[in-house]
# Entry
Amino acid sequence: MAKIAPGTKLNKSISSVNEGSAEAAITSIQQGFERSGYICNSSIATSIFLAERLQKPLLVEGPPGVGKTELAKATAELVGKPLIRLQCYEGLDESKALYEWKYGKQLLYTQVLKEKLGDLMTGAQGLKESIARLHDFDDTFFSEEFLEPRPLLKALWQPGGAVLLIDELDKSDDEFEAFLLEILSDYQISIPELGTIKARTPPIVFLTSNNTREIGDALKRRCLHLYIPFPDTALEQRIIRSRVPEVEESLRNQLVAFVQGLRQLDLKKQPAVSETIDWARTMVLLHAKELDAELVRRTLNVLLKFQDDIDNVDAEVNALTTKAIEAAR
Amino acid sequence: MTEVLGDFIRALRAADVRVSTSESIDAGNVLDIVGFGDRQTLRDGLSQVLAKSEYEKEAFRDTFDRFFAFDQFKQKAPGDPQNSEDGESEDSDQNADQQGGEQQGSAGGQPQSGGGNREGQPSGGERAEGDAEGEGGAEFPDLVQMLESGDQAALQMALADAAREAQLNRIRLFTQRGMYVRRMMEIMGLNGLQDEIERREDNGEQDRADNLRGLRDQLRADVRDYVEKQLEIFTANAGRQLREEVLSQVRLGNIDARDMKIMRVLVAKMAKRLVALHSRRRKVDRRGHLDVRRTIRANVEFDGLMFHTIWKQKKIDRPKVMAICDVSGSVAQVARFLLMFLYSVQEVLPRVRSFAFSGQLGETTDMFEQTKKIEEAIAKALRDHGGGSTDYGQAFVDFERLALDDVDHRTTVLILGDARSNYSNPRGDILKKIHSRARRVIWLNPEGKSMWNSGDSEMKRLQPYCDTAVTCASLKDLERVVSELLRHAS
# Structure
């Protein structure tokens, strides 16, 4: 069985179903997400359930715009813990991700110490005794007081646990990946001057990747792996209904069918869910009731982000629109 | 239960999904949590711990559907009156079963009635683990009854148990099919079935005997079907894997011409892997920032005045490789690979100069860079520089003239050849000169160590001036050497 410390404070919506069967728990997670506006299929809910039960980080991969980051946010909302986010980029290093010493304070400390040194040393006989007396003071120079926590350390220190989102891991360097291994497998970090710091409550960790490069095996091994593909028609319709409720059903079905058709084409960048949502909002703004070729042409730049793609699709807009209207019936 | 999981993981590995031990343990934990109750949940859960890339997910789904396909006795359902009603209720359940609606695919045909099997499966497994030996054939006394009542769930379980007992998961060759079918039939109680048929015939119940005989033949076909599916699951990729495995270890000189294509793919794969592994590191090293942390710590002793500045920039030790490749007759076969290797190295490392020689030595760097196709480049190098009789002495003289001035303390000199110099002076003195100037001299010899120094091999006279001299006969060796080289280079 997964190790779940009895004292672990779990959020009600998960802990209340802990005794029940796995399916019930998964369904309740799914419903919880739905309440906060994140529509997902059972496979995503299963992964959240397992990540929470096994206390393992969850590596989420998939094309941009399918809701990887959203998933972490929705989970944070569901479990009622703060979301701590670490955006990765090339050149990110431990001083920005983990901790930094408060140099200014440290310098002040040395200044103060120097001034007070005279007082401290009064009555000390000779050098030896002075040094011995100096040694009696705690070594506060490298102590937690002078530690400036960055996202990772913050997540470990957060009382009651947190949801830690390490976003776009593929943008960071290989070294950074290696450096994450300790925190991912044991929820602890080593600071050379202080020793090991363990998590007060293990955070729920999400890592996301757009697959611009292959994530190392060592890291993958420590994580659960969730691949989120583009949603199918039914799911996408539900997402739009939840996110843009103003759109009428017929139009919603049409535009989802259109986007689904668009994904079949050979495009540089396929429109993701986020683009569909934007497009639906555009339609609301334009007071559109029905999809037509002219309207699609005018708003195509919401869906497609490359001029090449727009040019390519332009010729097929008529056919695609007709097909979408057919399919939506 | 663990046995089922173990078999499944073995099947996954056969389908090219890499599963580590720790991942198997995770899978066990997942199984504990979600159980066999719901197919969809089980598949989602296992796929999250076992398959960790888009490609692997696909392979996983395929393998899962084939491995946990309990539809063996299902197709014949319409012919059986008892089953048709079962079948009707299935459809409605099935739809309710699948939410999210994305994964119907090939799993769609899984009926709810199979749910009984799934739940039954683990318990059956545990029992078989415990006392399979003791009970043996006695475990399925009512095969006749099962067949006649058309109890598919029980049959499926009996089949799974028989498969386990017959150790079907060890099946490797298609010629083993017959044996496994017979063994499984026997375990399921074929003898009792035969006796029953004979008894009925003796009693004059010809109809019922024929009926049972028909069911028996049907069962045999089902078992055969099952065995074939299992064979496919466990050996799907075995052929190709075996071939690649063998080719990467076989001596380069012994590779057939028809395998060259696979070899090229392997070399390209290797080069790509090495590029991925090492290209990034160089990029990172090219940045420079003030390292505030270390600067302040270094300056504490100066009252916090920034006296020493410390930079994050690492000094880039630009790797410089000069590769000298013997392409003469004695190593003709191997030379192709050495050149292939050189070509790949040139793609990976930024500054490689390559030379080829048999009699005289010439530089091939520019030619390799200009020729886009690896086959052409190799053919050209062989044509221009090969064919002569080997003369290491002359080659070193030429190298001294061409490139010795460029050899400095950052240069790694790589020599690929068998050191067979046709009894001419190998000019160890020049190699000594190279060695003293270069950072490292590595000799890769396609011959095994026992062959060194035999006949006209001059290894003993040249080896003292090499930092490393190793056998490099197969692709595996090559990869190891390049990887080592790159690690030190950066």
